[in-house]
Amino acid sequence: MTASGAVSPRSIAPTIDARRDAGGGALIGYLPVGFPTFAGSVDAAVALVEHGVDALELGVPYSDPVMDGPVIQAAAQTALDEGFRLTDVFRAVEAVRSRVDAPVLVMTYWNPVLQYGVDRFADELAAAGGAGLITPDITPDAAADWIAASDRADLDRVFLAAPSSTPERLRLVAEASRGFAYAVSTMGITGARAEMDAAARQLVARMRDAGTERACVGIGISTPDQVADVLSYADGAIVGSALVRALADGGIPALTRLAASLAAR
User: Fold this and answer.
1) Rounded Cα gap, residues 153 and 224, in angstroms
2) For residues 176 and 158, what is the distance between their CA atoms, to the nearest angstrom?
3) Which of 41, 80, 122, 242 has the CB geometry, 3.0–4.6 Å to 192, for a possible disulfide?
4) Is 57 labeled as catalytic in the residue annotation?
């Protein structure tokens, strides 16, 4: 929220609300910055929006990605080998936002933010036009510095909930998240799966009971049918590994074909 109480113009919340009010939900696409090159990653992100993706999640390549599956790990390693630097994230967000009008969140493990400086990271992300951060490896009760910085910089903050989360944890996630809260569809690492874990539907219901206003589901979503299924009970569907694989195997043409099919749900 801004100081006046209004939603930040960069926030993903209005996009999710508009898609929900229209009787559907938001399609959020993930790609790592710097894969296959910096310029290529920007072009790919822009292409997603141009082919029906509602919002973007740009990943920070990291050398110890505890939550990422092999497809995203390989792409992140390519970006690192290409010379990725953390400041490239802000350059990418600014470049994407200059070309398409869609909210751009950054997904990052916490250590890069901590090393860069929490306030500095928040200020530069806001200046670039970013909506906020998805932080998979920090919990709300350990995120006081980030909560304060994101409040000051009017940034979204997305915390994760898992099927194993306790009711108290779900309440903390609901209270601390802004923009949306991330429902992890299944335990384990990212990667497209043939069938969505039925626990996702139950988790979203528990999150709503705990006070979550917007719940988006990620991990394992790869087909239009899975997107449609998720959006029958959640406010957004996050697709990552399937898009990264398409980009790796067939470049932007393959990426846009998949994005268009997912958006046609």
Assistant:
1) 36
2) 8
3) 242
4) yes
Helix 199-209 to helix 167-176 angle (10° resolution) is 70
More confident residue, 185 or 213: 213
Q: Which domains does the chain have, with CATH numbers?
A: 13-263 (3.20.20.70)
The closest of 163, 153, 88, 84 to 118, measured between CA atoms, is: 153
132 pLDDT band, cuts 50/70/90, is very high
Of 43, 54, 57, 94, the catalytic one is: 57
3-state secondary structure the chain: CCCCCCCCCCCCHHHHHHHHHCCCCEEEEEEECCCCCHHHHHHHHHHHHHCCCCEEEEECCCCCCCCCCHHHHHHHHHHHHCCCCCHHHHHHHHHHHCCCCCCEEEECCHHHHHHHCHHHHHHHHHHHCCCEEECCCCCHHHCHHHHHHHHHHCCEEECEECCCCCHHHHHHHHHHCECCEEEECCCCCCCCCCCCCCHHHHHHHHHHHCCCCCEEEECCCCCHHHHHHHHCCCCEEEECHHHHHHHHHHHHHHHHHHHHHHHCC
Choose, from 68, 124, 197, 229, the residue flagged as catalytic.
Answer: 68
pLDDT one-digit tens code per residue, 192-242: 554 556 788 999 999 999 999 999 999 888 999 999 999 999 999 999 999
Q: Kindly report the pTM of this predicted structure.
A: 0.92
